[in-house]
């Protein structure tokens, strides 16, 4: 039995009248890439936001690296957050800062007594890792969508996280850039030995990055397993998901 | 009529509900500021950066407006004073008007438009593009980093700008007085300072502190609570200006009552 880095049981979350998550069970095992598929609005982003304490669940438990997120006091929550890399759906780069300042931000604020040379080395290392060394002094507004995604990923990598959460890493990108991002995700998994959750509604992305896929339908995970296994299931809803993607890509 | 009234009361109820829940959340926001401002980490660098942005970037606009206010107010007051043969009181009158009311008010209104809207828009867009969430997951307290630093910076810089506006307005006034009444610079300023009391100056500065705080906190509040989408950002910026201006006038009225109370003591 591999050890679980994320353990979610019976998680529910509603916003007013709207029930988004209705009893989610999910495990993420050490070292694996888990692709989470689901329709727009099914609560995928809500789920991973609960994992980092940006939102809190109504019921159920969400343990990350053995700690119940909702019970953590601010200090320990912050310590946990540093072990998690969160790549946002829209990249969330700080508009008023250059790429370099964006990358330095988590570093400067969380690692004390770091020399300038060491700082620059780390920044260049992650930036080189995502293949964008030439953008060091550019502003986020000057970058393309794909570049922004990569910088966003680089910014989370700079603190060497144990877990990576990617919120729709390939949404809105052209197919070639998608492949590049998929490769980057796999490369990160190998080099940094992370366990990752990749949220997506892009089946190509799920297939090429996920060791395992899980499908979020009507507030629950209805199927989990290897890509081929899941899409061989006789569930109409999963089939329609497959067809939808097939027709649209 | 009987058919209409439930509808009306429904909408009225909804309105009132919205108003009071808005008030409550604004109150919580201000309270949160006062809870967070005392404890480390202190975002000193960001504070300095904001001071520079708020203070330095407002200078051109404030210089121009202050100067024009000085000249216009002097020229408009002259005929009335001349009628009573009291044109020599012009410096004293201008001094009181500028320091007590015009300087703080003009500065605060301009800053509400310039600083308040830019804070509202900046924080609003950070909110809707999840930059605030991103700060939070990188273990930085976004309230401290964004809100506390900006509110402190505007609370400190508005009084500085007010003093500057006072000075520029008086210089504008001097040009006019110098040309028409042939008063020298030193005589002008002797008359200006003679007219002012300690109370005038402290009241003016305290009032400016409050104006500065208002502009900062309203901008941050509106931005922090802007709803999804780019439309929300524009609304936040707009609401920040309107709200801040409204509050500034209310505060002006209150401060008038308070200073009058002290003046009579
Ligand atoms: N903070 C919030 N307040 C109120 N409702 C919210 C909030 N966050 C999410 N929701 C609602 O929860 C539902 C799920 O949102 P979520 O962002 O998780 O969807 P998603 O699966 O990530 O979709 P997408 O693929 O479009 O990103 C949506 O209907 C959304 O309106
Ligand atoms: Mg989402």
Please tell me about this protein's structure:
The complex is a heterodimer of chains A (249) and B (265). Chain A is α/β, with parallel strands linked by helices. Chain A has one domain (4-245): 3-Layer(aba) Sandwich (Rossmann fold). Chain A has nine helices and ten strands. In chain A, the strands form two sheets. In chain A, strands 6-7-8-3-9-10 form a six-stranded mixed beta sheet, sandwiched between helices. In chain A, strands 2-1-4-5 form a four-stranded antiparallel beta sheet, with helices on one face. In chain A, helix 6 (175-192) links the parallel strand 7 (163-167) and strand 8. The longest helix of chain A is centred in the last third of the chain and has 18 residues, at 175-192. The termini of chain A are far apart. The mean pLDDT of chain A is 88. With 265 residues, chain B is mainly alpha-helical. Chain B has two domains: 1-36; 43-263, no CATH class. Chain B contains eight helices and no strands. The longest helix of chain B is centred in the N-terminal third of the chain and has 40 residues, at 44-83. Chain B starts with a helix and ends with a helix. The mean pLDDT of chain B is 92. The A-B interface holds A 49, 52, 54, 78-79, 81-82, 84, 86, 88-90, 92-96, 105-106, 109-110, 155, 159 and B 122, 125-126, 129-131, 133-140. Adenosine-5'-triphosphate is lined by residues 15, 18, 20, 38, 40-46, 89, 201 of chain A.
List keywords for this structure.
heterodimer, A: 249 residues, alpha/beta, Rossmann fold, six-stranded mixed β-sheet, four-stranded antiparallel β-sheet, 9 helices, B: 265 residues, mainly alpha, 2 domains, 0% strand, binds adenosine-5'-triphosphate, binds magnesium ion
- What is the rounded distance between the termini of chain A? 37 Å
Number of H- or I-type helical stretches of chain B: 8
Q: Helical content of chain B, roughly?
A: over 70%
Query: What's the number of helices of chain A?
Result: 9
The CATH architecture of chain A would be 3-Layer(aba) Sandwich
Q: Which structural class is indicated by helix and strand composition of chain B? A: mainly alpha
Q: Most extensive interface, residues per chain?
A: A-B, 23 and 14 residues
Got a strand count of chain B?
0
Number of individual domains of chain A: 1
Integer count of domains of chain B: 2
> Quick one: how many beta strands of chain A?
10
């Amino acid at each position: 039995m591999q050890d679980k880095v994320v353990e979610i049981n019976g998680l529910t979350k509603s916003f007013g009248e709207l029930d988004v998550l209705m009893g989610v069970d999910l495990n993420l095992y050490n070292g694996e890439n888990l692709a989470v598929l689901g329709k727009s609005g099914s609560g995928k982003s809500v789920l991973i936001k609960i994992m980092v304490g940006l939102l809190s669940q109504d019921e159920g438990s969400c343990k990350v690296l053995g700690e119940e997120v909702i019970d953590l006091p601010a200090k320990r929550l912050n310590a946990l957050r540093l072990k998690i890399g969160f790549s946002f759906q829209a990249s969330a780069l700080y508009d008023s800062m250059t790429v370099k300042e964006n990358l330095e931000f988590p570093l400067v604020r969380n690692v004390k007594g770091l020399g300038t040379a060491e700082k620059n080395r780390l920044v260049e290392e992650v930036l080189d890792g995502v293949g964008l060394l030439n953008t060091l002094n550019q502003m986020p507004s000057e970058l393309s969508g794909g570049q922004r995604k990569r910088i966003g990923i680089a910014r989370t990598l700079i603190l060497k996280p144990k877990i990576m959460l990617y919120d729709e890493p390939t949404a809105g990108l052209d197919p070639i850039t998608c492949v590049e991002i998929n490769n980057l995700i796999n490369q990160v998994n190998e080099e940094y030995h992370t366990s990752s959750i990749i949220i997506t509604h892009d089946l190509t992305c799920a297939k090429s990055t996920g060791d395992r896929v899980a499908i979020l339908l009507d507030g629950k995970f209805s199927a989990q397993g290897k890509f081929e296994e899941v899409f061989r299931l006789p569930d109409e809803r999963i089939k329609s998901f497959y067809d939808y993607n097939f027709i649209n890509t | 009529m009987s058919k209409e009234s439930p509808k009306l009361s429904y909408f009225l109820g909804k309105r009132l509900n919205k108003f009071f829940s808005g008030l409550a959340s604004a109150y919580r926001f201000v309270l949160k500021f006062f809870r967070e401002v005392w404890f480390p980490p202190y975002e000193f660098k960001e504070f300095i950066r904001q001071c520079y942005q708020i203070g330095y970037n407002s200078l051109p606009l404030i210089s121009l407006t202050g100067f024009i206010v000085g000249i216009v107010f002097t020229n408009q007051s002259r005929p009335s004073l001349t009628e009573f043969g009291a044109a020599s009181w012009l410096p004293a009158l201008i001094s009181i008007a500028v320091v007590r009311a015009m300087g703080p008010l003009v500065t605060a209104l301009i800053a509400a438009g310039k600083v308040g809207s830019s804070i509202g828009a900046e924080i609003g867009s950070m909110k809707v593009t999840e930059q605030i969430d991103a700060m939070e997951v990188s273990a930085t307290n976004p309230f401290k980093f964004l809100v506390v630093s900006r509110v402190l910076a505007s609370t400190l810089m508005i009084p500085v700008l007010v003093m500057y506006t006072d000075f520029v307005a008086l210089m504008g006034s001097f040009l006019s007085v110098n040309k028409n009444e042939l008063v020298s610079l030193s005589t002008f300023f002797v008359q200006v300072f003679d007219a002012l009391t300690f109370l005038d100056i402290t009241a003016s500065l305290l009032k400016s502190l409050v104006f500065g705080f208002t502009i900062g906190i309203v901008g941050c509040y509106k931005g922090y609570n802007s709803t999804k989408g780019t439309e929300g950002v524009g609304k936040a910026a707009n609401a920040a200006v309107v709200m801040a201006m409204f509050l500034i006038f209310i505060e002006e009225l209150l401060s008038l009552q308070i200073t009058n109370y002290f003046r009579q003591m």
